[in-house]
Each structure stands twice: as structure tokens, then as C-alpha cells.
Amino acid sequence: MPIPTEEKWMSIANQYYRLWNLPNCVGSIDGKHIRIQKVPNTGSTNFNYKTYHSIVLMACSDADGNFIMIETGFAGRNSDSGIFRASRMGRWLERDGLNLPNPRPLPNDPNEINFPFYFVADEAFPLKKNLMRPNPRRTLTNKKRIFNYRLSRGRKTVECSFGMMSQKFQVLMSPIRCTNEITINNIIRSVCILHNFIRKREGRQYIPSIDFDVNNPEYFQVPNEFIRDNQDQNELPRTQTARDLREYLSSYFVKPYASLPWQWNNCV
């Protein structure tokens, strides 16, 4: 799959905001263990923590569940974080080799501070300027809980992609009956490409299900303590770290101009 152009990344980001209320997000990254038969002469290389042999697919999906980038061939015993660091995807992100657009202000942000475009991932991945991960659960405040919730809305797209792909293609419903790793990797890549083809041919797009009462003003009321506690957090340091960016995004999500009507009941 070719690396998207800046225009394509911008289109993906706009769709993420429209569907999942996640501004400047350009993709969701995760790894999936593809079950395989034991490959001869590999020992326990592909034996994973789930106690079966697998090859890991590292993938990034867009807001509609289509794969943007895929990479396979990683031994099942490796962790997602280790695989990501070793992957071309991780190296491209580290070296600014993904053609991401220049930073732009978050929607409705009165500060108009340019915020970088970023991917989302789970706790297994590193926190970087262009890769947002949830706050650690042991240190959660209400603001951090809301950040984690907002992030999870966008992060689930890649999980749904894996689920749809596994249900659609019978070859993934049981261990792949092949002992040649090159062939196995080609099968996995082919399935990902066919997944995208079918999604686009059928015109499938996500329609988020939102369950809240539009006539209930409590759903639209931002708690006073959030306004009070975050009214001074309006600036980013001149030298921005990944933690600074996550903190700014956390504060942004609880502002009246960026909060979701139902996030308070779901998180607090």
C-alpha cells in the first residue's frame, strides 16, 4: 500500500473528526496475531502469549475501517511495542517520513495553536508527538478519563477492521494451513487488500451509534469544576514534548467548545 499523500491524510483526518470527534487524527494503529500452523525449524519463535503459533500483522486503519498501512511477518512471541519499533511504520513516523500535513489548530480552539497530526494506539505503544496513547490507569483524574474515552472512540476503528476481516475471510477462522512464511505473509497481505476492496465496493462507512437525550440539558452541561480547573491551561510550551501535547489535548476535550454532550455521563 502506498504512503498517503498530504491531501489524503487531510481527508482521513477530516473523516475522523466527523465520525469520531477526534481532531487531527490520521489513523489507528494496532497489531493482530494471525494464527498459523507451526513452521518447521522455528522452535518457539512464533509461539505467543496466547499459547498458539502466530505471525503478527501491524496495521493502521482510517476512520471507516479501511487499512491505510500494513506490515506483516513479525514473530508471534514479540510484543506490539517491540514490533512497532522494528517496523517500517514506526521508523517512518520517527523520521517524519509519512508525508503528514503541517500542524493546524484544533477545531474551535480560540488559542489557534498549531497542533500536529497524530495516530492513536493503545497502552502497548510509545507516546510520541505523532502517536497518542491513553493515560496510565493508575493515575487517572476525571480529565484523563475523558481523554482516554475520546481516544478509544477513534482507536476502535482498527479493532473493528481486524474483526470484520476475520469474519469475512474463512482462511483466518482457523490456523493458516501453510508452512512457508513467505506464502503466509502474502496471504495476509492479500486478505487486507481484499478487505479494502470489498469495503469500498460496498460503500461501507461507519455510522457511530450515539445514545443520549437531546432534550435533556444535563447532557450538554459542562461541570463547573472542569471549567474552573482548566481555565488557565491554554498554552503549549515553546519546546513541545509528547506529554505536553497529550496534556493540551486532554484540556481541550473538557472545554465547552470541544466536549461531547455524552462524555460526562460515560466517564465521570
TrEMBL record:
Domain called DDE Tnp4: residue spans: 29-196
Span of the signal peptide: none
Cofactor(s) named in the record: a divalent metal cation
GO-annotated molecular function: hydrolase activity; metal ion binding; nuclease activity
Main location: nucleus
Subcellular location as annotated: Nucleus
GO CC entries: nucleus
Keyword Hydrolase (UniProt): yes
Alphabetical keyword list: Hydrolase, Metal-binding, Nuclease, Nucleus
InterPro entries given in the database record: HARBI1-like, HARBI1_dom
UniProt similarity note: Belongs to the HARBI1 family.
Protein name as catalogued: Protein ANTAGONIST OF LIKE HETEROCHROMATIN PROTEIN 1-like
Lineage, top ranks: Eukaryota, Metazoa, Ecdysozoa, Arthropoda, Hexapoda
